[in-house]
Design a protein that fits this description.
Elements lengths: L2 H5 L4 H17 L5 H14 L5 H37 L6 H14 L1 H7 L3 H13 L4 H29 L4 H36 L1
Length: 207
Amino acid sequence: MHVQEWLETVPAVAVYALVGLVIGLESLGIPLPGEIILVSSALLASQHGDINPVVLGASATAGAIIGDSIGYAIGRKGGRPLLAWLGKKFPKHFSEGHIATAERSFEKWGMWAVFFGRFVALLRIFAGPLAGVLRMPYWKFAIANVLGGILWAGGTTAVIYYVGIVAESWLKRFSWLGLVAAVLVGLTSMLVLKRKAKKAQPVTAAE
C-alpha cells in the first residue's frame, strides 16, 4: 500500500504523532523514511481538512529538534564506541566510509553541517550523534538544530501542502515525483560528499 493511502486510514492525531515519532527517531540516528512520511502527510493534509498543516509542521519540527537533541546527548555519552556499535547494527548506513565522510563534513563546516544536514539523507541520521561524539559546543549545536529543524520540517510541510492545493489533480503523481526528487537530491549530496572525502584523503595522508 502506498504511504499516503495508508495514512488516510488513521486519525489526524495519529498522523501528527506518527510524523513526529518517525522524524524524531530518524534524527536520533535510526535509519527511517522520515522524509517520505513528511511529504506524504503534507500531501494528505492538502486533501483532507481534518489534518491541520500547522499542527503537522509543528509535530515534524518538534520531532526533528527533540530527536537530534537526544542523539547529541547519546553521542556525547557513548563516544566513538557508539559509532562502532552502530556500524555493526546498521552497516549499510553507519559504515566506516559513511562515518568518515560525515566527520569530514563536520570538521570543515562545524555547526553548518548540523543545519544543512537536515537536507542531506546521509547527514540527517548522523548530525545529532556525531555532533555529540565530536563534542561540538552545545550552544552551537542547539542553534543549528533548531533553525535547521524549523526550516526543513516546517518548510517542507508548507511547500508540499500549498503545491498540493494548487495541483490537486496531480497529487498522486506529485507524491512520487516529490519522493524521487528527494531521493535524487539525497544521492547527489552523498556522491558529492564522498567525492570530496576521497580527494581529501591523499592530502590528509601526505600531511
